[in-house]
Amino acid sequence: MTAAPLLTISSLTKRFPGVLALDSVDLDVRPGEVHALMGQNGAGKSTLIKILTGVHTRDAGTISFLSRPFHAASPSDAQRQGIATVFQETSLVPTLSVAENLFLARPHSQTPRAWYGLDWSAAGRRARELLARFDLRNVDVHETLGRFPVAIQQMVAIARAIDMHARLLVLDEPTSSLDAHETARLFQTIARLKEDGIGIIFVTHFLDQVYQVSDRITVLRNGRLVGTFAASSLTRLDLIGHMLGRSPQELEASVASPTPRTSPTRPRDPDDTGELLSARGLSRRDAIAPFDLTLRRAQTLGLAGLLGSGRTEAARLLFGADRPAGGSVKVSGRPIRTGSPRAAVRAGMGFCPEDRKVEGVIPSMSVAANIALVAQRTGARRVRRLGRFGFLSRRAQARLAEELVRRLGIKTPSVHQPVNLLSGGNQQKVLLARWLAAGSRVLILDEPTRGIDVGAKAEVERLIDELAASGAGVVFISAELDEVARRCSSVLVLRDRRVIAELSGEGVTEHAIMQFIAGDARDSTAGGTTHAS
Amino acid sequence: MPHDTPRLRAPAPSRFDAWRSSAVFWPLVALVALLLLNIIITPNFSRIEIRTGRAFGSIIDILQNGSLVMLLSIGMTLVIAIAGIDLSVGSVMALAATAAALLITGGHPPLWIVISAPLALAAGVGAFNGLLIGRLGLQPIVATLVTLVAARGTAQTLSDDQKVRFDLPAFQSVFDGLLFSIPTPILFVLALAVVVALVLRLTTLGMDIEAIGASPRAARLCGLRVELIRVTVYAFCALCAGLAGLVAAADIKEADVASCGLYLELDAILAVVIGGTSLTGGRPHIAGSLIGALLMQTLTVMLQMHNIPTEQTLIVKAAVAILVCLLQSPTLKPRFFRSPSALST
Amino acid sequence: MPLPRRHIPAFAGAALFAAMFAAASLRYDHFFTPATFLNLLGDNSFLGIVAVGMTFVILSGGIDLSVGAVVGLATVVTATLITDYHWRVAPAFAAAIALGTLIGAGSGCLIHFAGLRPFIATLAAMFLARGLAFILHLEAVAIDDDTHTRVASVALHFAGATKLPVTAIIFLTTIVLGTYVAVFTSFGRSAYALGGSEEAALLMGVAIDRAKIGLYALSGGLAALGGVVLTLYAPSGDPSAGVGMELDAIAAVVIGGTLLTGGVGSIPGTLVGVLTTGLIVTIVKNNESLSAGTTRVAIAALLLAFVALQRALTRLTSARRDP
Fold first, then answer.
1. Nearest CA among B241, B247, B243 for reference residue B267
2. Burial level of A417, CB count in 10 A (0-12/13-18/19+)?
3. CA dist., res. A297 & res. C234, Å (int)
4. Between chains, do A91 and C204 touch, taking CB under 8 Å as contact?
5. Predicted model pTM
6. What was the ipTM of the complex prediction?
7. Which of A451, B9, B111, C37 has its CA 20 to 30 A from that of B127?
8. Average pLDDT in the C139-156 region?
């Protein structure tokens, strides 16, 4: 591992309107090395990869590849220069055959040709030879690519890249839709590529896999480099700590000290009466294994786990945003139709989705309209005076919106402002206001504090506490474990698309959650129960 | 962002919200400019006289001849607002006209049946469109292209490919009569536009449509009945087309299967696009669509008065369509509307 | 690389054609003759040529609504140049085809550079083509030219009175060349790639701009060729020729097994689709009790049935993909 680096990135900086996506980041990859790139949402991983592959241009910094300055104008340009990317799904055309995908849009000299044009029998022959090198001997190269499992598709994409003389391979979350067997197979391939001296940047959310294949790990947080570590000398707990921005020592200390226990914002023992929301055996194929959940009145329940752990999928199933494969949901003891947001809304549920710009706010509509959108039809008592029989007065709508804008401190020149002109934090508050106006008693909030500034964050958090205090039930997802630990009276911990533990009461500590996520919780912490998996 | 939308007044709550919105503003300016131009260059353009109880003049012509497209554009506005498209309106016109004509000549049912049965048939075709798109997952263009062909084909089959002449004075007086010296089609347009605009403003439907068009996934998560609203909107659009069909038939006392409503879907789409309703869905601008329809009609009348055949005005329509689409184009718009400072960077 | 499984709709189309042909042969006397089949090719040649261009566009995930108008324009341009300006036949044909190609390329540019959606760009092109046709001639104009008549009467004669007219020869040539382009050229494969996944095609380095503009230009050019062939079939230039042909072409393409969403399909499939829609017309013509309207309804219904079949098959495939 002392060879000259294949790729050297130094002081890479990229600014998007309002965001510093990458702030002077350094990274180097050696030949025959698997280099894991880790970080939370918004850490800057995808920006870095997109610059490397020519999707974005950099604002500052240098990249040198094979000891030469490197600049890619497009993904195919990067590929020509020897840096290939394999994305989770979109790398290849699913409706074309395997052979076609291997030889489509290749430089003229690499395309199998005969005097009459493209030579498909030669392409088939070459495709079989190529795939044989990757132990894919039983693949019919003339079969449509989309008919093969994702693992094979990714292997084909890797084969294409290698055949195009790639020296550096970027694997962007390649395993997130693979099962254990397929992942093992992919890792065999990776091992072989290492032997051939190919450098690999590996992006994933699965810690086990990182340790299985990586030589070194680089952690990014909020666009900054946290550090590059040898995989063998970095503990899981340390890794998670780096990703989340908390040092484990700090956490140990906070566990030892009794002070956080008295935090008034955290309802200790909510009344055992009033089961607001209960789910039994809710599951969805390739998304989340069957899980149970019970939410009581005035309770804030956390779903904790890394990205891709199934926490978002679980939240979506609860609200009916996705159709579950099985299971049932009850609101206040009454069963509701699963897979129907309409049924959920009518039963008094509200949902702030992870992607608030696409699934949350309606960007072109005004603040007032966004807030009143649900309230006008749910017939919440406090709103019914707005209008009857579906008729609603614009003035009443504006009044309702103004009241909530004041109460939530939404910063907007007027309630008639289109919501996409507001900052992310204020958009999030508008979403919360929508469900407050509708009188929702069960709120499912998927990363409500992500990507918003500190002030707005504190206000959103305060609002969640107020909601719980007023008797509502909140299902809270956050990537920031301290937030979860501070706020929630019980926490479901997820890993690898299943609920692995339920912590409650005294057991809810950041340290305990982290240990379960890291997968090295040997003893179930006080008050915690480990699920058999 | 603030520099590309001309603020006519402060963003305060206003009864005339739709009017002051920039989407309607520019088409209106264009219409007024075109009318002024015509008053100057086209003799007798602005004269309106009342002879034998009927108003005459170019302006009345524009309104009356434009009434078909205006009727269509009211329904089309809603369809486009939910990010759809309806190519079948012209054929639905022919179908409704034929149905009415056959009812009149076939038996002698009461007037309300002659009117309501074709309208119901039209609405049924529209609902079918909505179901094809929602249930079968067809792209709107394809689904409505199928009904475009099928509806006219059905009309041809029903009428044996013949023009159906009819004579029912009561029917004519409803769809081609006069009320207060104003031709009834103009009143239909006005009434329908006012009703739709009121419903959009006063009920949740307006917001629902806008929400579904702007962000169907977010609308679904708000618990909106996306399917039901889609079917309703397509049915309503076809209903407008049916009404236009009856007006067209009453005008010539005949249902002409081959030519009734031919190509009018394109005029209607163009009117809506000119009127500022985005083809990618979003807020419906009924007033804008009417202005768009009038703009096109004024252009046609103007070219006609300068002895240019109607068929050739298609070129002008094509030019207008391309221009408007380019102005609204997601990739080109930023270049046109950048402030000077942004351009210099 | 034709593969059986992704061509189920095309086979369904072929089976339907065979069944209909058999049924019609039983029902009508003198139907089951080579002449019927050859006439079918000749009568639908212009539609078929238009459908080949449409196949490429639909394969790439787009749609071209301007083809009918371009057909009309091409007939008028041909007639005007030959009759009014006394051009020779060959340059007149070439000019018509060049104009159609230009209009198609224009649509392609609007789609690629301005980001317009294919249907609105080609709708504008449709207005433009019709308007141009009407500017040249408001009414149909006859083509009266010896060379033109001679070209139109070229035919391959078989035993007996059966012959393959020049229109059918051009149609079959277009099918063969179209198949070649689709299968053996990078340009053809890029149409499949675009329709399968534009994002992936871009990542893999397919020249999307060249492919898109080229595809619409090809569709426009073939539509114009269809118009030229139409003048050989009926020697006149009619500005309202080809009204509604866009749907017939789309129907033929879809019945021929090309997925409306793009990415899957074939040119020979389109031949089957054209013959199937043509057969419906022939059968209706043979049956006194059916009106022309019935043809339209039948074609629309058939299109719908095939789209539904495609949906079902797509669902089935994707269901099998994640077990």
1. B241
2. middle
3. 80
4. yes
5. 0.80
6. 0.81
7. B111
8. 83
